[in-house]
Structures are given as structure tokens and as C-alpha cells.
Amino acid sequence: MAQITVTLDANLAIDVMMLSGTRNPQDAVELVLRDYLARGRRTETRTGEAADGQRLDPQRPTAQEG
């Protein structure tokens, strides 16, 4: 897997470390990003994609008048 370097504000890194319970800022940021991505996938699975709305809401026939 490719590695990248990201510069963060020290206070932000400390907050992330405190929230994740880690002592290493790199591990903390990685945990937060993995959690964010997993949450997004769970939400997408639960709600579906934008194209699913058309599939679930079929066009209803119009009532015939007369």
C-alpha cells in the first residue's frame, strides 16, 4: 500500500489521539479515517444509492377519468 505524508495542526493531532485512545498521531489519524469510511459504507448500505430511489418508487399509473 502506498504511503503519503499529511501535515496537520498539532492541536488537531492531539484531539484525534485523545478520541482514538492512541499514543501515536499516525495511528490515531488512520483509525479515525478507517472509522469514517466504514460509517459511510454502513450508511450507504442502509440507505442505498441515489439510483435505488427510482427502483424502489415505480411510476404509478395515472387514474383514468371518465
Reconstruct the topology from this structure.
Blueprint: H1 10-20, H2 25-47, H3 52-56
Helix pairs in contact: 1-2
Protein described:
The chain is mainly alpha-helical and 66 residues long. It has one domain (1-47). It is built from 3 helices and no strands. It has helices at residues 10-20, 25-47, 52-56. Helix 1 (10-20) packs across helix 2 (25-47).
Question: Can you tag this structure with a few keywords?
Answer:
66 residues, mainly alpha, 59% helix, rod-shaped
Structural class of the helices, strands and pairings?
A: mainly alpha
Helix coverage percent: 55-70%
> Would you tell me the overall average pLDDT?
79
Whole-angstrom Rg: 22 Å
User: Terminal Cα separation, in Å?
Assistant: 67 Å
Secondary-structure element string = HHH
Counting H and I runs of at least 4 residues, what is the number of helices?
3
What oligomerization state is this entry in? single chain
Number of individual domains: 1
Q: How many E-type strands?
A: 0
| Poorly predicted runs | none
Q: Label the overall shape.
A: rod-shaped
How is the biggest beta sheet arranged?
none
Short recap of the structure:
This protein is mostly helical and about 70 residues long. The chain contains 3 helices and no strands.
